[in-house]
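Researcher: Let's do a round of design. I'm pasting the structure tokens now; please hold your answer until I've finished.
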């Protein structure tokens, strides 16, 4: 295949020119059809620029969603850590209250 930029003859199957490194063939991102230009796929009709812009937009949305979920999870962990002493104290208070009541009952029964 001859390079469209510099005219150097390249062997078949080489994706880039051995002289100027220009791209010799492009692969469709949707159907993987190989062709000599990168505008619209000859096989499936996919517009390469539209495909990659949509792909990048979707990737950015996914990344933002992951960051949002991570931030939300970190906030929940911080909230749980901040309220842990209060949650434990309620359990401890209940335990101590039952201990005091139980000992008071046993004290009055023994009299």
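Researcher: That's everything. Go ahead.
Model: Designed sequence:
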């Amino acid at each position: 295949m001859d390079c469209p930029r510099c005219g150097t003859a390249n062997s078949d199957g080489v994706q880039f020119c051995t002289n100027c490194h220009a791209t010799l063939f492009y692969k469709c991102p949707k159907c993987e059809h190989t062709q000599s230009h990168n505008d619209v796929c000859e096989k499936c009709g996919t517009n390469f620029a539209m495909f990659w812009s949509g792909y990048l937009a979707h990737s950015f949305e996914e990344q933002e969603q992951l960051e949002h979920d991570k931030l939300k999870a970190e906030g929940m962990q911080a909230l749980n850590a901040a309220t842990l002493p209060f949650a434990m104290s309620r359990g401890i208070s209940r335990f101590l209250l039952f201990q005091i009541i139980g000992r008071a009952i046993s004290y009055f029964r023994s009299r």
